[in-house]
Amino acid sequence: MNLKQLSESLGLSQTTVSRALNGYPEVREETRLRVQAAAEAANYTPNAKARRLATGRAMAIGHVMPLTGKEELVNPIFADFIAGAGEIYAREGYDLLLSMVPAEGTEAAYRQMAANASVDAVMVQAPTMDDPRVPLLQELGLPFLVHGRTGAPDGYSWLDVANIRAFRRATDFLLDLGHRKIALINGQETLDFARRRRLGFEQAMAAREVSPNAAWMRSDVMTEQYGYRAACEMLDAGDGPTAFLASSIIPAIGIRRAAGERGLRIGRDVSIICHDDGLSYMGNEGISAPDGPAFTATRSSIRAAGQRCAEILLSLIDNPNQPAIQELWDTDLSLGRSTGPAPA
Amino acid sequence: MNLKQLSESLGLSQTTVSRALNGYPEVREETRLRVQAAAEAANYTPNAKARRLATGRAMAIGHVMPLTGKEELVNPIFADFIAGAGEIYAREGYDLLLSMVPAEGTEAAYRQMAANASVDAVMVQAPTMDDPRVPLLQELGLPFLVHGRTGAPDGYSWLDVANIRAFRRATDFLLDLGHRKIALINGQETLDFARRRRLGFEQAMAAREVSPNAAWMRSDVMTEQYGYRAACEMLDAGDGPTAFLASSIIPAIGIRRAAGERGLRIGRDVSIICHDDGLSYMGNEGISAPDGPAFTATRSSIRAAGQRCAEILLSLIDNPNQPAIQELWDTDLSLGRSTGPAPA
DNA sequence: GCTTTTCTCCAAAGCGCTTTGGGTTGGCGA
DNA sequence: TCGCCAACCCAAAGCGCTTTGGAGAAAAGC
To answer: Is B95 within 8 Å of B61 (Cβ atoms)?
Structure first.
């Protein structure tokens, strides 16, 4: 059933039927109801392809996921974020177009999207300090929202968590517990959030006049093995750290493994605190855990961020000239069983 | 730049230019080269929206991800699978359309996709024993591929790992090590793969005339907390299992946590073996780990499965009447440090 | 030499929708 | 009575591509 058939069956023009269904005012209410009823009865849905061509709108949002060639790493964060965003898109009638491209092909991918307007906007994830995607998208005139920030966070819209504050607070928490030998197991510091977290860590340490041990500050892709190896090396070197601050629950699990193998008790011999993106399957949530969360953590749901980012991005489409929207989310510091006073 | 402009600039008709670019034989080779050169120079790409309308092909593959309302759980497996599939789609010029819908809305989502042909095919993940999606998609005439199988795995195309065999082998491995008190921490047994794994476990046990303890066979959504709690309960009940067989690395991590908290050494006091989907960030791979994989595991890369599934699915589109393609992948049993002889 | 075929190319008709630019009609004020 | 303005509705022109059904010229066949 297409519009033509429907309109013929109603004895109306395509114009009128189209307008009736799309809520334009030039059609009598009585007619509108009649049209809607007929459409429903005939199980009619406008052909999306035709509509896209006619309107020029893609009714789709692009997420470009760069596949870092060597590591072949899929960021587990993406999944939860996309799930959150996808929910909103679906609700608003937008499609989510996921594009996996090798890292060096991202620019071309965006240009392609802009050139034939196959998406109405794009979501930018995991920005680096000096991310080339921001100026590129500005040049292309494609609405976009950055989840996170770049080093120069002005003139575009973003949503980010207060990383400096979060890690300052987490560090303070460890310092208050008497820890002085604290290791930072950070993400790749080319990524802006990782740099900010390091800053937060350093600020807190400096404020107490504790100088961090350079050998205990690592920066890498946040895998379980990375956390494991880093912790192994530090713990085996003698006089190791008494506390670890990790950028994600994934390396934190590796740290726990390393400690466990050495017979160290978490929260007693060694403390671990991490940032928790609220990954559901990791279940580090207090509510659903009568035994309490495993890890003490700065928490901010990546899923919720995805939802909010989607909302903002869609609003950007309808209103492209509004001033940049910038939202900074605070994290919760949630107590778990992985931290305790520094051993004497 | 659109086709009309390009053809005018060349002094040719749109027909000829279109055919030249799409490799039809009715155009002289010399002309074709001229057209291609001009297209390249003008940075012309055909408008995807117009092409879709004209051809009726969507050049897109649908992945429908049901959001289980209560749990709000995002399956971490999906991410790696999609990454693999997306790679292939991109290479073949297909878009990946990701649709997040509440579980009860999946049927409507598929019907919608079929009704206006917004995708050329769909990928079905995590099938249940008696999955309604299979008959639905058959009715809709939408090409599809199932990753996994249903209880009646005939008449449609699928790719699956040999779950029974894998878990029989894993169980045998534990039995060979002298374990008799073995717990099965399975996924939800409404899912077909979980049922098969249980079967494999039971078969191996029966073959050695070891009767499994019903209290040690669990089935649930595979979170870390699930593994943790199950292990806690079993270990605290006195005379607990000496070995755990887990359906995924995620609950296995929870089991390890439970054991660790109780001062039990993994691979000595308690053995753990799990199925490993090769999630990159979990890094349970031997190659990249000089210290060896943490977990002994039956391994099969979910990413590679995604790639292969995509290839098969695309071939199904071009050739819809071919007999069903069914591929069964064997798993590797890779030795890690989480297993050892049963304690005396 | 004349008809057929083959090779190239083209005009125009879709694909199914939205949207522009009017047309009718009826009611109301002057 | 006439003119004007809403209120409704419509025909037709796109959107940018593919594809059908030729047409013209050159090559081939008899």
So the answer is: yes
